[in-house]
Amino acid sequence: MTMVYEKSKGLTDTPFHYCPGCTHGVIHKLVAEVLVELGVLDNAIGVAPVGCSVLAYDYFNCDMSEAAHGRAPAVATGIKRVHPDKVVFSYQGDGDLASIGTAEVVHAAHRGEKITTIFVNNAIYGMTGGQMAPTTLIGQKTTTSPLGRTVEHSGRPIRMSELLATIDGAKFVERVSVDTPANIRKAKKAIKKAF
């Protein structure tokens, strides 16, 4: 029989806690596969901050560290500077990176820190009940914008990838999606390039 699907050795056996339809599971699988394929799983250290990604330490089969809300790039920077031979990455959602953590990611990019940041943008604060996030789309309804986000009331969504791409120290920035098989393949290529 042909193997169609196999769980990556880069993931533990712990079942994901994510909501049905959430893309975190797909992205975890891609990151884990890339770490294995590049042969760096045993040399990798991930940083998981507060938010939906907080339990990533249960899922990735590599060394993991926790970080305060929005501070994953700062923690990852410290780890990389102490362990320059390690592959260091942060795994962050939009409520974390694009809100309370904006300063940390901008300055890590500005300094050209040798870390990889996986930014998962689901356009909402998912863990706390579906409130509007800085990345919530115009017209998108949330628990705190039941009529939909408006420019007049909340401004436009922050486009973090485009913002970070303007910083000279950022070596690679790419916006990808995991909504179709073709896009999942593109996302995996981008993740591999990022590492």
Molecular structure report:
The protein has a domain of 114 residues: 3-Layer(aba) Sandwich (Rossmann fold). Helix 1 crosses helix 8 and helix 4 packs across helix 5. The protein has eight helices and four strands; from the N terminus they run αβαβαβααβααα. The radius of gyration is 17 Å and the shape is globular. The chain is an alpha/beta fold and 195 residues long. Strand 1, helix 2 and strand 2 form a beta-alpha-beta unit. Strands 2-1-3-4 form a four-stranded parallel β-sheet, with helices on both faces. Helices cover 36% and strands 11% of the residues. The model has no long low-confidence stretch (mean pLDDT 95).
Descriptive terms for the model:
195 residues, 11% strand, 8 helices, alpha/beta, globular, four-stranded parallel sheet, Rossmann fold
